[in-house]
Task: inverse folding
């Protein structure tokens, strides 16, 4: 059973999300809230598998919420339930079209997946399951937009992950390039002539070495460090 905390400042949208996900036999609604600060507190108290962030939680407040929930930044003491151990649920963000910069920032803050707000109900339920299992969810359209955002910002940013790239072996770099190209584990295994389990091991090692939580963050890492260059 996957437990979900729904965060949305729009009452009707929050109700719809709760009803859609709550109707799934393997998804349980752990709680719901309207504010980012309450989401941080409830995430620590309820310890859901997935926090679903939607509505008008935009930067910078929304990014801070993602950072707190993902464990990248400790929340204020008032938002931390006494006597609880740190908990880092997976984070799925629903974003409207045209807000790719927010999605890009949320990715860096620790989000694990993104889905456009106009996604079909079955897509949303599937995305929750995938994120809960530790994988990443990014729609093809949003992936393209994120890559474009990386291309635009790369010249303006320093390369804070350069040392992380240096820690990767040659084979791990090959796998990361394949991941950034959108290949599945099965495709990577076939093209590199290695076992699928070996691919999973390489991906896990890559995430650990670069300090990423999910494949989608590894993709951004690959573009930011220049390991993969977006087409013009």
Result:
């Amino acid at each position: 059973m996957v437990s979900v905390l729904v965060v949305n400042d729009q009452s009707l949208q929050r109700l719809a999300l709760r009803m859609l996900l709550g109707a799934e036999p393997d998804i349980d609604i752990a709680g719901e809230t309207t504010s980012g600060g309450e989401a941080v507190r409830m995430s620590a108290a309820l310890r859901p598998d997935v926090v679903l962030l939607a509505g008008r939680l935009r930067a910078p407040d929304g990014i801070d919420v993602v950072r707190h929930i993902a464990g990248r930044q400790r929340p204020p003491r008032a938002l931390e339930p006494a006597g609880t151990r740190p908990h880092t649920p997976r984070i799925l963000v629903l974003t409207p079209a045209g807000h790719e910069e927010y999605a890009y920032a949320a990715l860096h803050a620790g989000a694990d997946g993104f889905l456009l707000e106009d996604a079909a109900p079955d897509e949303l339920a599937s995305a929750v399951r995938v994120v809960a299992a530790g994988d990443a969810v990014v729609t093809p359209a949003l992936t393209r937009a994120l890559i474009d955002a990386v291309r635009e910002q790369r010249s303006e940013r320093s390369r804070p992950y350069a040392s992380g790239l240096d820690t990767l072996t040659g084979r791990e770099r090959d796998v990361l390039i394949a991941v950034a190209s959108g290949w599945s584990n099965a495709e990577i295994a076939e093209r590199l002539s290695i076992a699928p389990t070996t691919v999973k091991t390489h991906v896990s090692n890559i995430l650990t070495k670069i300090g990423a939580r999910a494949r989608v963050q590894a993709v951004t890492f690959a573009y930011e460090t220049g390991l993969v260059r977006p087409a013009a």
